[in-house]
Amino acid sequence: MQRLPLKTEISSFFDFDAHVGAEAQFTGQIQNVRPLAWGGFLILRLPNYLLQVVVSRDALGGLIDTLQPEMTVRVKGKLAAAKLKDKALHPGNVELQASAVEVVSAPSVHPLPVDTTKKELAAAMHTIFDLRPLTLRHPRERALFRIQSEIFHGFAESLTEAGFTRICSPKLVFTGAEGGANVFALDYFGRPAYLAQSPQFYKQMMVGVFGRVFEQAPVFRAEKHNTSRHVNEYISMDLEMQLEESWLEIIRTEAFFLRSILSRLPSSCANELSLLDVKLPKLDDLVLLELSEVHEIVYRESGTDCRGEPDLAPEEEALVCKHAAEAWGSEFVFVTHYPSSKRPFYAMDDPDRPELTLSFDCLFRGMEITTGGQRMHRAADYEAKMRSRGMDPAPFESYLQCFRYGMPPHGGLGFGLERFTARLCGVDNIKSCSLFPRDLDRLEP
User: Fold this and answer.
1) Exposed/middle/buried for 104, CB within 10 Å: 0-12, 13-18, 19+?
2) What is the dihedral of CA 158, 365, 419, 151, to 10 degrees?
3) What is this structure's pTM?
4) 367-375 and 359-364: which strand pairing?
5) Which tens digit of pLDDT belongs to each residue from 227-278?
6) Which of 157, 195, 351, 409 could form a disulfide with 220 if both were Cys (CB 3.0 to 4.6 A apart)?
7) Residue 180 has what DSSP assignment?
8) Where among 84, 105, 126 does a domain terminate?
9) Which of 358, 390, 392, 391 lies closest to 377, judged by CA?
10) What is the CATH number of the domain that holds 37?
11) Among 82, 105, 128, which residue terminates a domain?
């Protein structure tokens, strides 16, 4: 029998400034090595840092000539103040002057198939994805996903502080939340089942329990798109909430968590924002345009006549975002009142214009990042709307029961993590903002 004492400190953060002049030890992987006549430099990749290590031949002989990228090493030495120009280095004002370097492990492949020591990854996108376990180690890739991690964290923390409860809904479901053929079907012990397109049904049910809920989880769309805007598995950050007065509370809630996320990033990801040259947007007054107004703006400014169309084309999203930035100084545009025929059956119709819905999309820097709106909350309304669309309510009975037991007015949204990350960081293809993207052609790694 062995007793293992508890460890009260497990943080991988380190106060380099407070330890300048002190001895320190770190274990990490070599991001880059640069031998010189007098010794050279190692760039050591640590959980939260890229640390420059100075290696002297007087102290360590010719060891530096044997070191290679991706070796794991244990380094001891003294921390010293430094002025480092490479923006990838973090900290940028401290280096370790090594007195000992121990090789812990080494890659079995040499040379590595992609050079991750350069400022940019010089490889085709399919190669970058094929070799994802290696290419994600590049400083710019690490920076992108560090920012994404903080977006994910900021969404949850801000909503938790505002009284929302986190839920975890099933991803094996009895039917698609949005209908249609874009669901992945599978066999569930002899019964048909599907991978969830959305947590929609379950987050609505949970409004009846907690009033305000959120979820961050993968969703699956069997859409045969092969574009820079689509993947078949992505992280949807969802919320659903009881409404006190108006469906516009949902838009205000999105603005709340967006401002919270954007306010946290400068302190939590200063190095990453600098490395990727990210320009954080401001979110002050909210710009709301009805879909018909957007079509008019597009027609007036480009001559393209999409008036009467039930949705926005990508070109329209880009144009109206450009217009909003120039005319109103806003990089976020909330497009409202989509036709009822275009929205799922659970969308609430506008009482004054029943052909339209109390719904919206949020556009950011030319791309839709959010879809949301008010939902119906009476069982009879669901049954009537489903029948009007040729849907049989019977298969949805387990969903409809929450409305039979009574539900308050409510609504919510789904916020695409990869899309927001891409637009924020200036990445053209959202697949690059998925750790291991899934599309028409890719199921590994």
Assistant:
1) exposed
2) -30
3) 0.94
4) antiparallel
5) 888 899 999 999 999 999 999 999 999 999 999 999 999 999 999 999 999 9
6) 195
7) S
8) 105
9) 358
10) 2.40.50.140
11) 105
